[in-house]
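DATA SHEET
Item: assembly model
Revision: 1
Owner: S.N.
Input lines:
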Amino acid sequence: MSIDIDTARKVAHLARIAVPEEALPELARELSGILTFMEQLNEVDVEGIEPMTSVTPMRLKRRVDEVTDGGYQDKILKNAPDAREGFFAVPKVVE
Amino acid sequence: MSLNQLTIAAARDALKAGDVTSVEITEACIAAIEGADALNAYCAKTPEIALEQAKAADARLKAGDAPAMCGIPLGIKDLFATKGVGTQAASNILAGFKPEYESTVTQNLWDAGAVMLGKLSMDEFAMGSSNETACYGPVVNPWKVDDRKLTPGGSSGGSASAVAADLCLAATGTDTGGSIRQPAAFTGIVGIKPTYGRVSRWGVVAFASSLDQAGPMTKSVRDAAIMLGAMASVDPKDSTSADIPVPDFEAALTGDIRGKKIGIPREYRLDGMPAEIEKLWNDGIAMLRDAGAEIVDISLPHTKYALPAYYVIAPAEASSNLARYDGVRYGHRAKLGKGDGITEMYEKTRAEGFGPEVQRRVMIGTYVLSAGFYDAYYNRARRVRALIKRDFDLAFADGIDAILTPATPSSAFGLGEMASADPVEMYLNDVFTVTVNLAGLPGISVPVGLDAKGLPMGLQLIGRPWAEGDLLNHAYVLEQAAGFSAKPSKWW
């Protein structure tokens, strides 16, 4: 499976990374190279094998659904590039 | 010998005996760091914090309340959140980020009395095998045999370089595909990746959550046992932290492995493997046999598919984990042009903030998770992963106690030498280590010898899940038999 320039453009957009048009051919070439490397996986017989979901055979822990943490808005906002009046600020979103 | 050259064990004993103070050891480390800017290992130095913690540790020691790590100065990989101290994962996208919280691992270490000398550079978001993707510029290996500067390996390259050059007594590292064990091998130190779930991931910047595990990088196997004990805990803040008590790892170092079965996987004997690595491996086998272990040829048939499976699964998880870097909550935000909306803000911020390797992996991950390819790539890779784990399960079920392999396919290479290589060639550095992350097992790299050029080479031991004590004991025997004591001569 090789990645063409249109696919590279689409992947970059899905990943929300701006890639200039002139860089797309090189990106497509690199991504194709990596995918070719992954094609080896097609040689493996995986019939009847469940995809691995947990590294160790353990059930995810459960706890009572209650508030155990919180109440520090100032700390949450402290590292924001733009925080105003207790909120994260972003450019205007117009749909 | 100056105090910064001490092992944790030697410093602990000297501190307890009152022969030396933590302030003295810490000052020796600070002086060594000041003289080692050429290595570029530390990306942030925190001498004031260190001296304050050292004084507090000395007071604890005096009061007789001294856990094993009390007063021991450490370097901390830039991946661990440290309250009030810059934590960037060596990425421009986290420029200026100062966490308001402390990672569980570092909190455990400070609670045990350890001292923080500063933050250590690494490959950006732990993605790399040469430390050349760090936004702070490459870290240099203290080992040098000609006029070239060598890589310390990666991603925990700053940690490896700092420990090998005695810029701390030990350091924290993290390992997603070999990021503790490969740099440890390249710099002649010890590094252990514990069983997945042994050490809390809370407060560690996430790369691939089902593979990431933190561990110590140290000057000896005993130090690794001591420090792992202090890092590990059962942590309610990490849902994958296992409810298994942390044993006394140091007590497991009996030096007796008589009757233990050591597996030698035939699939790790690669075509074109350098003769020196092959010889090192054979020497290691002989050492364990001489110590009374039984050597058994084993097969791990899916080994060949570990790297391609890893390079589907790790980028897939990374593309999800790194979605949070969007210029809203922390770190860098791009300057926007007139009319730019929120999508341009995301796209420009991420293009400016992420380096080329991180961008590549996020995009690969995005692709393999996208509609139409999820089953063909991601689910297939997870099924192959199950087979890789089953290979190990079967070996252990046959009575194998530990598995011995090379740690890396070569010794350290020169900085810049892989610049024109295909990304996949760099990925081959992880060929012996990545299986261990996929299977969630503990693995340790032990320095065993020097190659003809005079560069360190390591062997890897792989243990049963949750049997780090037993694994460390095997490593201890290998360390004693190899008697590796070479140090890089100071040129920096």
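QC remark: Residues 277 and 406 of chain B are 7 Å apart (CA to CA).
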